[in-house]
Amino acid sequence: MTDKTELIKRYIFLLVGLFVNGLGVSFITKAGLGTSPITSIPYTLSLGFTPTVGMFTLVFNIFLVILQVILLRRNFQLQNLLQLPIIALFSFFIDLTMSLLGFMQPETYAMKVVSLIVGCLILGFGVFMEMVANVAMLPGEATVRAVSDVFSTDFGKTKIAFDSSMTIIAAILSFIMFKHLDGVREGTIVAAILVGFIARLFKKYIGGIEKILIS
């Protein structure tokens, strides 16, 4: 009974974390200085087509799950399919928070930077909540893990290469669709550097919250 209660608490924590993640992504995007690396392709596509950032995020992450199946083959476990409802919720939360932040239109560059930093703090806390919940990974991280396992590479270095690849592909798509860079800017690089660092700081200084709220 205790194990079931703890598992329920962890999934609730994950659910809240997904909302916080969506809010963080939306805050960064609304800053107008680019978006987070993992969202860069969906966001760039949403600038040129009708579907929303959330819708493109859902489709893109389903593609990542399929990529995991191809990479892992027999080692792909059925529990990894939990990524599908999780990413569906995450995509919904992105669209929801983008709508809630519809009023947010920072005009000066200073305000854009402030919005970007606030977004990184929010997203970093959301990532920290995922780490504390420790029940499932989003497709982005799960794909990095799959590549790391199959090719025996370091997870951290593979993560950097993955994020860099997403950003480069988004930039190429931007030039193809708009003939100039749109959707990928300096904020994308800042988010790539800050979010993981902030999540680790939360883990270091308030990681004990897991014992209080969950265990």
TrEMBL record:
Coiled coil segments of this chain: none
Membrane-crossing segments per the record: 12-33, 53-72, 84-104, 116-139, 160-178, 184-202
Keywords (A to Z) from UniProt: Membrane, Transmembrane, Transmembrane helix
Domain of life of the native organism: Bacteria
UniProt keyword Membrane, yes or no: yes
Matching InterPro entries: YczE/YyaS-like (IPR038750)
Keyword match Transmembrane helix: yes
PANTHER family for the chain: INTEGRAL MEMBRANE PROTEIN, INTEGRAL MEMBRANE PROTEIN-RELATED
The protein, known as: DUF6198 family protein
Organism: Hominilimicola fabiformis
